[in-house]
Amino acid sequence: MTLQNFMNEAISPWMREEGPDNDIVLSSRIRLARNFANTTYPILADPNQLEEIRDFFKDNYEKKSFQEYKDFSFLPIQNLSAVERQVLVEKHLISPHLVKHADTAAALISENEQVSVMINEEDHIRIQFYLPGFQLNKALEKSFEFDDWLEEKINYAFDETRGYLTSCPTNVGTGMRASVMMHLPALTLTKQINRMIPAINQLGLVVRGIYGEGSEAVGNIYQISNQITLGKSEGDIVEDLQSVVEQLIDHERKARKQIMEQSSKRLEDRIYRSYGVLEYSRIIESKEAAKCLSDVRLGIDMGIITNVSKNILNELMILTQPGFLQQYASKTLNPDERDILRASLIRERLQLEK
Questions:
Q1: Where would I look for the motif RDXXRA motif of the pArg binding pocket involved in allosteric regulation in this sequence (predicted)?
Q2: Residues 6+ apart with CB under 8 A from 69
Q3: Helix 136-151 and helix 234-280: axis angle, to 10°?
Q4: Using CA atoms, how far apart are residues 354 and 341, in angstroms rounded to an integer?
């Protein structure tokens, strides 16, 4: 897999697969934070130490395969252009924090983009494992298998009492963040989400936007993840998150049914208006595009719109981000130029469905 493959395809191959409850849960992710034992952590290490860590991954894992995760690509962040870095962030393959440490950071990404390893982010190693739909337990199992594979060559920083040792105290213990990406338009429309978020936070979970900490819930997409990593096992953390997500799925489905029963024409009007904006706009900003794409996806999931596939919607949610637009144009674009190109690409993709 070459860098160009990662750049050209808005949807990662695994995202084209059908997952459980995929009308509401877009993806499940397990992220594991790990560090090398007896080695200074990235926040205090000097560049030479971090370069040694980076080179270790290049020497031992580039072009290697593990189970069905083939041909890992090794990407030093300093070798990527600003647009290439932004595209990888938009695809959730790397974090904005990794980009800030480009001189010594790298990413190891599987061919199907289901596994990515961020090297020298906040910790030496940040493993990310994705599955489509609601599959937290399977994602946990697979991430453990991959983690064990890495540990065959790496001596992790681990304490028998505290667990895995990390740069940030909030990750000590399991070093794990389990999360799901959820599309919750009905709970947002009925404003029920506003009272649910504080209740979820009280359970030791956190609700964030599509790009994690500090981001907005654009397009009615929310990321639900654990906050507590110490004092609970990985299985207990996933079980707690699983329970809350199941309740959110149930509430979202009931809210959709209620809206359809009480104001079906208003809902249909909203969905078709959004479809019309996407189909005919010549200029569209990213927030408006995300809102309209969310409405159309709701229409697809509720059987109101039948001539558009969810994959096109998934693709457009990423393809219309600033990095991808500039990658597509092969040049830097100002905001107005991005808004024009965004509208053009949406019209073009929707035409493919007819």
A1: 338-343
A2: 110, 111, 112, 114, 115, 146
A3: 110
A4: 21
Tell me if 208 is assigned to a ligand binding site.
Answer: yes
Binding residue per annotation — 34? no
Consult the annotation and say whether 126 binds a ligand: yes
> pTM to 2 decimals?
0.91
Q: What is the largest CA-CA distance in the chain?
A: 64
Minimal CA–CA distance to 73: which of 128, 127, 150, 5? 5
Parallel, antiparallel or unpaired: strands 176-183 and 221-226: antiparallel
Give pLDDT tens digits for 140-193. Answer: 999 999 999 999 999 999 999 899 999 988 888 999 999 999 999 999 999 999
What stretch of H or E contains 54? helix 47-61
Which residues lie across from 182 on neighbouring strands? 25, 222
Residue 28 assigned to a binding site: yes
- Rounded Cα gap, residues 101 and 268, in angstroms: 47
Per-residue confidence (pLDDT) for residue 104, from 0 to 100: 95
Q: Is 179 annotated as a binding residue?
A: yes
Distance of alpha carbon 185 from alpha carbon 270, whole angstroms: 12
Three-state secondary-structure class, residue 268 = helix
Identity of the residue numbered 176? M
pLDDT value at position 219? 85
